[in-house]
Amino acid sequence: MSLLSKLAGALACACAVSTAFAADGTFPDRSIRFIIPWNAGGSNDIAARQLQQIVAEQQNVTLVVENAPGATGAIGLGKVAAAPPDGYVVGMGTSSTLAQIAQNLTPLRNEQFAHIARVSTDPLVLLVPKDGPADLDAFLAEMKRNPGKVSIGTPGTNNLNHIFAEMTARAAGVGYVNVPYPGGSRVIADLAGKQIQAAVLKPSESKGQIDAGYVRPIGVFGNERLQVFPDVPTFKEKGYDVYPYGPLVQMAYVVAPAGISPDVRARLIEIFGKAIQSEKFKTFAQQNGFLVDDLTGAALDKEVRDVQTTLNSVATKVFKQP
Questions:
Q1: Taking residues 87-115, what's their average pLDDT?
Q2: What pLDDT was estimated at residue 9?
Q3: How many whole angstroms separate alpha carbon 246 and alpha carbon 131?
């Protein structure tokens, strides 16, 4: 290779590096696709659209929310993993997909993503139609009277909602019918329409129908009652252990494709972190019964690894292995 060719190659590399740093310095200079791997109207979609509004108002950054449901979140997150690592495509990861990974039900792996910021930590509740069993004890008694026949709907399958549906049946000591859906909005619609007899959902995706009197919460999968539903008892206080294999957390968090530059990752953390910590989003969280914190970047990497480790253990004990 001639000296001139070498110099030209070096100059091209330098220009590429310079361009990359320039792009980082002005990121974002166009809209960011925010892929939500669930149906519109579910809790993750609702939270994403709230963040979309806050980010636009607060920082003049445009998020374009795109729903890509299917395979318990794996289809949408697959799009994120395959996107160019430039920061212009991000997505919403959830514990449900971590449960899929734990059971090798998806080719996705956490190493395919750069973790940005946790959006929510969500309690889960057991709900029945408005004229269903009066309380948790009555529901479990109904399950015992109808072994293997009572249906419980969940958004997705082989995930945390499914785990807690299974724990409900174990509390009754009988089998049941799990009815999976592509998102919480479909579950709550069929529950209100009495197409299913119960559901495991987040408060954020059921509160509207609860307030309207279409469905009722009868049990909380947690150690403490929820502020948003102070009269609803926990399974624990009723004497039922729904964490026999260790604590589980249902969470949602923003991810980008692995390989994004540190500068772009830091900017995404700034954009989403500022919105999540805003008073508007905190108020929204309180009204919808979920928790927010400031877990971002490397700390979120560790949290995801820890939740994955727990799910790897729990999945083998709860679900039938292929």
A1: 94
A2: 46
A3: 34
